[in-house]
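Re: folding output
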Amino acid sequence: MQKHHLLFLLIAFVYLPAKACTIAIISGEHTPDGRPIIWKHRDTPALDNKVVIYDQGRYRAAGLINSDDDGPDRVWIGHNEAGFAIMNSVSYNLLEEDTINMPHQTGYIMRDALTECATVDDFAHFLDSREQPWGVETNFAVMDAQGNAAYFETDHFSYTRIDVDDKRVAPHGYIVRSNYSFTGQPHQGAGYIRFETAERLFYRASGTNNLSIPYLIENMALSVYNSYSGQDARNALHLRETESKFMYFQDCINRYTSSSSVFIQGVRPDEDPGLTTMWAMVGFPLSSVAIPVWITPEETLPSIITAPGTANAPICDWALDLKYSRLVPSTRGSTRYYIDAVQVCNADNTGVTQQLLDVNRNVIEATNQLMEQWYPHAPDQEAVNNHYQWLDEFISRAYEKKFDISTNK
């Protein structure tokens, strides 16, 4: 037992800081348009991500994957043509120490669930029928086209289901998780500061009726706020672009290992499940753009967010380029955990994140106008193709013009 305990501590020391996602589910009863949302801010050593559409079972699905996973064998957040969506955050307080070394199957389970499940109840049956041990210690979050959304705090042999419409646990219509489970061992796990930060941000959004895609992208996915220290990269707004102000950001929602931030916006029960929309910020979120994705008969995607085989999505490369050249210019030792807040935003309006705000806003506005023409019916394939082409050209030009990045477009 003592050896196991030592091994657990060693694994925790190396592993906990790397996989540190922040996630949330939001009830459609509390969003301005009545559509539920799930959000995953992904943290992982696999910084090269992309989005793919695949057909390996009952339902076609769109998923965020590691760029070198050309199966794909694992999916880290996604939705399918039935309107079912799934994501997760690793938990570190559900398992006993003597089972900590079992291979993790989380990404495989989410891939399989997307090809087999249509509803939240289907996912419960999916887990119940799957051979144990499951090889997970995680908070699964799922959503369906009927407006249901729930967490499944899951270990190798059991889960606890927590529904977002349960007023006892979600009085304001949302539930946040980081890297511990509420049904797990008290005071264990990780991500307590990020949880508190997300809670504050969501509480503010809820109180102002702003649990919407535009607000969440701008204020959650792009957050560099530490609720424990009170530091915020946006506090550099009074500094000029020629100055520097480094901030330790490892306990923020955005941190060194942030590889993507993805929102999946569901539908109301009277709407076609095909309107389920993935808003994917692929690559380092602070230097990326939210791109909408739908599952259509032709299975098309914006070219800047995907790639064939094991290649990387172009926008992921652009975002990482800006991360290392401007936002996190030093990666020696622990210097990688310090971000130059002036390069996020500054008084000259030349910060990387700052300059991409108008790009995000234009993309969201144009996409919402298009979707209003579709509701409640499925997206029009020709309109989707035209919109994807516009996204490719508009976003590529923005990176070229604002940052002098060659996009080959």
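--- second protein (sequence, then structure) ---
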Amino acid sequence: MVIEIEFIRLAEQRRRALGLTIEQFATRVEISDRIYQYYLIGAAQPTLGTAMRIAAVLQIDLNALRDMQTPDEFGNYHKPGKEEKEEAVASLK
């Protein structure tokens, strides 16, 4: 599992479940709808501050998301490759 992919996947599921349009959601998070769409296609990643606002608006526990992933023997977390990101983006559609 990769945190940034799972976070956006979870955020998109929550946004839809709450019945928010991308525009409504982006306004509440204080970002542009275009930036959120960049997150959805994997062209950009939210900053920590933006991720925290997304989590607050959607009531997502960032700590629980982090705890779902385990680091390697050096304490590093997996960084997704291009194919992995493309697969994750395709799953959002």
